[in-house]
């Protein structure tokens, strides 16, 4: 019997008043040459959905978890996994993501923890076969246990580093076994609190060596999934080395890792970095490194990672504009790394939250497709940069001029006249569609 008191969620259209129905997300509907399910490749985050308690920095958890018996037993973890697949089947999500320590308990020894993970992976494999659901990506939790208080792959302690490597090795093996389409490295504590006690160069060298060893092992076991780095600027550390898209790309280039990694961009991490999601996606896309997306949003005036379900139609439209420019996902998907609010404590609120997020992205897709078909924004941008299409601009882009040549051009021509950027007009064009 389902622990979620509702039927399977169906598309009922914009006129429906049923809160447990899709108003805009219609999986098989074709938009700009792809079905909605193909554009989004929606994923469900196991950690928030099945393990999120609703706790915040000022209070304990409120969430009801009728699927848990209150223990950290392997049997409880296996039963929880079965409930999870019932949930994603009910809401029509095709993919999921997990941390090793969210699906299976941490035991007294690494060997016992590995056996526990294998036992839960047995159930995950059974449920994937039963439902047809797929693993979008897996990862290792290298930030909760006290051993990782000062980092994992950047720990000042070599024994901690070795333990983290062993944990990643096992998580990669399980991800490979489950047919995972990717593996994510999130450096939850790969950074520093103060530089007074930190050898930054040594820590970055160690992190790069860690990732090179992971690349080597990926080849050794024949894992074909994509590797991802997930940027985040701070929290819990004062500064994390994977602080934003540009920092990650710089690190990957410096240590000769870029060919092996793409980025998994999260909205709330972008805002914590002082950027927009559109900016972070664009930086990754322009570098050919946009791989996957953690779909959520934050409250800008709150100083931590609130991981809210995405409901902002400007956000989903801007996200889809970048994704459509890329032609859609080739490796990753839209993983709802989001949690229901502390006040939304009933199991059915998990259904509400995912339905609202999926509908928000469906509207964003349709709006983005309409903007691209209209063409006025693209036309304005092309016109704004037209001086680069011929003459001195084209020579610069082709590498056919020098500083001296540009000086001669500037001396021989009148003061440049710069056209208006028409920001308010462009913002108004976006509003026409939303």
What would your notes on this structure say?
With 434 residues, the protein is an alpha/beta fold. The protein has two domains: 30-374, Divalent-metal-dependent TIM barrel enzymes (TIM Barrel); 377-433, no CATH class. It is 47% helix and 10% strand. Helix 5 packs parallel to helix 6, helix 6 (158-177) packs parallel to helix 7 and helix 11 packs across helix 12 (347-374). The longest helix is centred in the C-terminal third of the chain and has 28 residues, at 347-374. The radius of gyration is 24 Å and the shape is globular. The mean pLDDT is 96. Its main location: cytoplasm. It is found in: Cytoplasm. Mg(2+) 1 binds at residues 230, 266, 294, 337.
Briefly say what this structure is.
By secondary structure, the protein is of the alpha/beta class.
Notable features of this structure?
TIM Barrel, 2 domains, 8-stranded parallel β-sheet, two-stranded antiparallel sheet, globular, EC 5.3.1.5, Xyl_isomerase-like_sf
Q: Return Rg in Å.
A: 24 Å
- Which superfamily, in CATH terms, is the homologous superfamily of the largest domain? Divalent-metal-dependent TIM barrel enzymes
State the total count of DSSP E strands: 12
Uncertain stretches of 5 or more adjacent residues? none
Average pLDDT score: 96
Query: Number of DSSP helices?
Result: 16
Order of helices and strands: EEHEHHEHHEHEEHEEHEHHEHEHHHHH
Strand order of the largest sheet: 5-4-3-12-11-10-8-6
- End-to-end separation in angstroms reads 41 Å
Helix coverage percent: 40-55%
**Rough outline:** globular
The CATH architecture of the largest domain: Alpha-Beta Barrel
Number of domains: 2
Strand content: 5-15%
